[in-house]
Amino acid sequence: xxxxxxxxCVSEGRLVELDSHPMCAPFAIPDDVQPLAGCVLxxxxxxxxxxxxxxxLMDELGSxxxxxxxxxxxxxxxxxxxxx
Length: 84
Fold this sequence. Notes:
The protein is of the alpha+beta class. Helix content is about 25%, strand content about 25%. The chain has one domain.
């Protein structure tokens, strides 16, 4: 968690409080729980450092992260899955 906070402080150019931004707010998930298992997520409009932290978080929560999503007819097909 401190890595997120440090990166955010550097990108803002100032020291920020832990509760000043959702990316810095701590939360607890039990080790054996993956609430996003079976989900495929795609990020758009996020830049570094938020993007890499969100990818790591989604991976820890059990989801797949895709670089692109392509919609075709009746289904959604994912391309280029990545892991943290």
